[in-house]
Every structure is written in C-alpha cells, then in structure tokens.
What we know:
The protein is of the alpha/beta class. The protein has a single domain, classed as Alpha-Beta Complex (Spore Coat Polysaccharide Biosynthesis Protein SpsA, Chain A).
Amino acid sequence: MRVVKAPAPPPEGVHDPRVGVIIVAAGASRRMTGEDALPLDKVFAPLAGKPMIAHTISAFQEYPQVGEIVLVLSQDNLERGRSLVAQGGWRRPVEVCLGGPRRQDSVKVGLQRLSPCSWIMVHDGARPCVTQELLQRALEEASTTGAAIPALPVNDTIKRVQDSFVLETLPRETLRAVQTPQVFRSELLRRAYQGDLDEVTDDASLVEKLGHRVKVFLGSYENIKVTTREDLVFAEAILRRRATP
C-alpha cells in the first residue's frame, strides 16, 4: 500500500511560495549510445517503465509549491514531448517549447515562456532521481540569499591539464560538483539572463556575474545525471528501490 505524504509546508522564510520550473532537456545526448553503437536519445530512454523525462516531470508535479513547468526540448523531441505531456495526466500545467543551441539559450527560452512567479527552479531533464526532500531543501536554502545550488564534495584528486601534462593539482577541499535544481528569486534570475550568456555552464554562474552570493548546500548522491548507458542502470536501481515497500 502506498503511503501518501502530507503536502510540504512552504519553507521558513518563503512568504510567497509560488514556484515556476524550467526543465532543460534540449541536449544532443552525444555520450549516450545504444547497443548498436548508434546515438541513443536519453531524454526518452526507457527507465523503470516510463521515459526518463517522465520521471523528472513527475518529481516536480508532486512538489506542492510548483505552479507551472516549462519543458525545453530539442527539435527532434518536440512532438514526442508534447504527446507525452498530453497523455501524462499531470495536474500542473506543462508547456513544451523548443530550446536553443546551448543550455543557457534553452533556459532563456524557458524564462520567456514561464508565467510570473516568485521563485524559479532550473533542473536538468537528465536528473530523474531528484526527491521531494531535495526540492524542499533547495527552496529553504534559497530563501536566505535568493540563490541556492546543491553540490557534492569532490572525492577524487583534480588536476588542471594542458597538452596532456599537469599544470597544477587543485585543493579538493574547496571544490564541489554542482547539481540541479538551482533555485533563484525570479527577478534575480531574469536580471542575470539579460547579460552576456557566453562562457557559462550553469545558471548560478550568471547570477555570480551580478555580484550576488550563491548559497551552496549538500546535494544528494542519488541525484545523478544520466549521461551514459551505465548511468541508466544506476538510475533504474534507485527508482525501483524507492518503489519497493
């Protein structure tokens, strides 16, 4: 028997909990290959009985503060995504739109489609194992500074390399591997996206360029980003274990 949890209350310090979500899934899946060595579209790869992106959408559908979701896809997946949403039976509206050539371009498109809200969560479509607890924690942490990102300590030794030779060994005590969702006050993220979008790999980088402090909090080791076929196996195990009473 499934246990239905009571809706999570708005995090302390969040006076207006309206949350808009942008799920970015417009990448080319260059590192994902099928058994025939041909590229495999990871966004719709089968995972625990559903397309991977359906798990990602469902996680945000279940979070009570979310009012609207914008799903940003590539041209090849646009119609498939619209069909998935039409058949999904989700309560909260999901708009499917075409992304841009880079991640930051896709997020900017998502911002243009998102209705007015107080907070914005930006999440990788390839992170289907995100939990309600992580979403709640992300909004709580963002409430203190207006910007928060989950991250994990780096356990491996990291070296900066050029032309196959080590330039330096970086102190891993100060390094973090950043995850999503990244959470921002709406006006802050929209202002950040009015600037130069070059040379950034995540949304927090743009907010940092404004001189705004970004809070870093402990992410989840299960919140993996599916990049390879091996990652699909790990994600499948995580989701099936959660579904087992």
